[in-house]
Amino acid sequence: MFKTIPSCHPCSKEFKTVHARNIHLSRHCPYRNQLQPKKRAKFTHPDDGESDQDARWDNGDDMESAMNAGHGSGMDTEDMDIGADEAGEFEGFAHANTQFDSMEPDQEPEPEHVSKRKRKLPARYEDKVVSNRSALVKSMRLRRVNTLENTTNPTSMTLDLNFQNLVGHDDTPAPLLNEHIENDIDNAPYTFYYQTEPDEFGVFKVFESSIPTVDPDENIGVNDVADAPTFVSNLGVDEPARSYSNCFGVHLDDNDKNEGKSDEGWAPFLNKSIFRLMDWFYRFPKNSLTALDSLVRDVILHRDFKQSDFIGFRAKAEVKKLDKYLGQDGDFEEGEDPNPPPDASPLHDGWYRTSITIPLPHARSKAASEKDAPTLNIDGVYYRKPLEVIKDALQDPSSASFHLQCHKLLWTRSDDEPIQRLYSEVYTSDRMLEMEREVRSGPTLPGPQVETVVLPIKLYSDSTVLSIIGNISLWPIYMFFGSLSKYVSLKPSAFGESHIAYIPSLPKTIKNAYKNIYGVSPTADVLSHLKRELMQAVWNVLLNDPDLIEAFVDGLILACLDGITRRFMIRWFTYSSDYPEKCLLICMCFLGEHLCYSCLVKKHMVIQLGLKRDMQRRVNLPRADSENLRKRVKNARKHIYVKGRAVRSDHVKEALGDGSWTAIVSAFSNVFFEYGFDYIKMFTVDLLHEIEIGTWKAIFVHFLRILFAIDRIQVDELDNRYRQVPPFGRETIRRINDNVSELKRKTARDFEDFLQVALACFEDLLPEPHNGIIMDLIWDLATWHAYAKLRLHSDSTVESFRQVTRVFGDSLRKFVRKTCAEFDTTELEKEREKRVRCTKRKNGLDTSTDPESELHQKRAFNPNTLKFHAMGHYPDAVVYFGTTDVYSTQPGEHAHIRSKRLWERTGKNRKFVGQLARQERRHQFMQKRSIKCGRSRPLRQNFTTNTEDSEPLPSCDPSLPYQMASGQRFYEEIPTLLASTKGDPAMNDFLFKLKNHCLQRVLNTELDTEFSDEDRRNLTFVSNLLYIHKYLRINYTTYDLRREQDSINPRTQPDVLLLAEDGEETGHPYWYARVISLFHVRVRHLGARSWNTSEQRMEIAWVRWYQLDDTIQSGWKAKRYHGLQFVPAESPDAFGFINPSQIIRAIHILPAFAYGTTSDYLPADSVARVYQSFENGKYNVEQEDWVYYYVNVFADRDIFMRFRGGGVGHVSTLEHTCVFETDAGVDEQSLPVYDKDGNVIEAEGASDSSDEEEAVEEEEEEEGSGNNDPNSDDNSDISSDEYLDGDEEEEDLDLGPEDGEVDDIDQLGLESLGYGNY
Q: Does the first or last residue of the chain, that is N or C, have fewer Cβ atoms within 10 Å of its Cβ?
């Protein structure tokens, strides 16, 4: 009659479902260890000395296993026959079987005397699960602003507390800010601060001057942060606030919206069946087995499929209907060019085609003005108006997840530690705060007084090769929205990018056209100048939109889907691109004297990376737009077009002055400079190009040169070591099958994998002291790279990042001075082939005229490059823009894959750009419409195995600590197992240890409890069977408050991390083990101490223990991996049983290749040898162990933070990893001190330069500015003309897929974007 609300009686907390209450009761309830039954279980023994109070339920692991078993079989505690009194206290205790089955005695006699186990079980570990990230429930505060410069905009000062979907908020209306101001005597300006309640991790927000009407983080739960594809998702596809037809400018009446009465909901197609077929067609550009399965499953077998719907079906006719519906009407075949005039597209986000003109410079040719100079007309520029794309995005259902106000994210680690600021998203960055303050301090905005929102726009552009055959390329510009969380927008499956333009190339006839005008062919300098002009001309078309300028200055007033009218201030946040494209956009020389895009440091000073003077120069000499610069550029152009000077003449250079500028006017400066916008602030660091295929690739290649100079055998050994590196995670570190020294088609993620395991692979390949030098250099670079890849930074990690940058600079200079100077290195074979190929192409000869040029030339290492210099900008970029994944070029590289697949559907002729633009609109429409019209694209896919003995696992609840299959398909009889493995050292005391482990869990005793023979006899295994499982999934909370999952497979990925027991002698907080078997047993326990005689399921992991090698120095100060070795099989501590819930997560264990292998630890034929290594193209069970192993602390971001300490999400292990923080120098950091509003009241102190730094500086001043070897690998001698003529494009082709691209978008997920893992 009345619905009972599930609640936890001890702590009175209520839950939505019984299942949620059970999880809380088993793991989160503070009274879970004190729960006591009101009745004893069956077969109570009156002669037992224990009282009822002492007989406790095993409310931890066994209860959880029982709940899992009950849940897997469809049981629910509401269906159990429990009395009312018992139900209140025992609803969470579900048992798979309450009947007491007949007892079966053990058939294996227990040993009479067994040595006691010395090793205790690992410490109890309980991971904290994300429940809710934000709740706007705390008080507001006013704070007087001392300067009038920060006077806030009245439209932003109004406090609007009309929150939506708030639960448990105070209903007392808060006074408006204006009321406080009116009551003040002097009516001085105020800044308003609003602070949220800290969540369970101690994280809270501070909003400045205004609070959003909607906070997308407010109701985030565990399902929202569950990233692993094997997690079950409780999130459905919500119905948008308005129909999707409206989002595309098509307005349907109420009758049309009712799909039950009309088929207009599937417009422009006639019926649902045709829609599903067309949707399938655009989802699978190429035929494959997956596409065929989808055709059958999603189209033919769908319940709405009707054969009669396809009578008269013609594909071309349906495509034309779609084009007409999208406002792209007109007769058009796949092989033709649509050629729409500029105003032909009535749809507000349709494509336009236009032409642009650029002036042609020529030395000694003068004109009255630049406008009178001859021009070149370039047709076929396809673009979309940025403002129309923005409007469409704001009307899309995904805009409900936009963060409307910037805020500071703060973290209280504990009550006795100071607050730290966190950096992660665009809307938690200093740049975003700066933009909001500029809006508030600006003039009063016209129009209605509505909520003002700064909308950050992220841009990306880069040329990509569509087809190697014919060298067909495309140069797209993409737009992203910074208000959407990166955990959503950067997923390839989210299609977060919007195509806004395709930049054309200079026409093939440019030389003839130029010669017809001036009588001579254009020089290389002129062609480079024209390419720069072309880039800015395209952006002038995009930006010179009066409506866009008005939206930038006064804002775009728009009624959002939630019914609230807001003012959106458009702001350009970042522009991500590689270095050559940055040079085109910033209008600076490629690799000029002032080669940096952020500061004006000179090239010869790059070697001083990390030194105090270098870091100070970056602050004192920023590259910025100014009125003076605009005047200098204008004067330089006057020299070119009016006075007839050459584009790179001394007169032009003198007019431009210092800074390595070019005589090009930036479109961003031309349009937005007068409104106070500095376009150079958009350009920030690029981890993919500058580090992974930049600095690390340069260092790695020179390591190969050194090894070739020593002995080719060392190169073969390096290749062999890399091939033996075990993979880790879901594509986190992939198996390396090729020879790394050949460098065949290696992408950025390949070099990233090489770096993460390089320390073990390069060990002892060089003689001392060079081995120690390169080991230190690799460690410092891997540490730097790990900090750079973090998705969540704190003040502490940023300070560590700065320190590591300085240390890496020291290691780099030491490597250059000592190791590089010691070896005479020559170019690799791949480098030689490329050099010869480039020489032939430039000379136009089939064979080289100089035989000497065919030989290997000397090649030295040069650190004076932009990519090394840029490393010093990364720590400040994290604070100013957010973490590097926010503005990485990798999402743009992945977006190229979509462009390539759309190109497959074009006619592949010279007019393919227009065809591709039309294909993009079709694909975008079908992708979004399919979400509304019945095909909800799943965020996660179920994981199944295709091996012969498959054991598929269903999707897992992310709040559970682990998942193991519930089936009993594979089993072993315990007596038979013991008899068949007699004499195997791994099976010594197997049954004895197994029973002790089960007793500890059944009786819920302390971990080191000793049990008697009587206790072990009272524990029996039902049917004497072990039920073996293939996989174990470990769920864990990451350092950045996400929920992730590791898959443990004893054959392929068996190594796990556990928390060490308290009082560990080594002081190391972790234990390490290799899982050799996963199984569950069904046990019963009788006797005087028994409180429950029913059958219980226990899930167990049988492990082989590693022990820490304390004979070597390891850790952050030693700059070496932590060493491990297996415990010898004869030791009683060699093997053991653990509860899977005690596993923290998987760990990547690397062999110490330098020390070889041994068979002393375990016989080759032992039953414990199940791990399979990959050799000669097949998997084989390992017959030997490596003498030593290393813990790869750089395997992924989360593992790095577990060994560095201080991870926000690692609440359960924070105090245990303080030893790591001490080793990493965290205790010595001087961090900013914040007040309660998140404002800095005490800045961090600058550390003095060390003696080593000063010595390095003096030595550098004596030796000069770095390597001046003409045979250096520095590409600074390459002019911008040579680059723009295609040299770098050929290098990209040699590299393989563009920089970081992968071949199959179906395999893309968080991992390939750097999420969840590396």
A: N
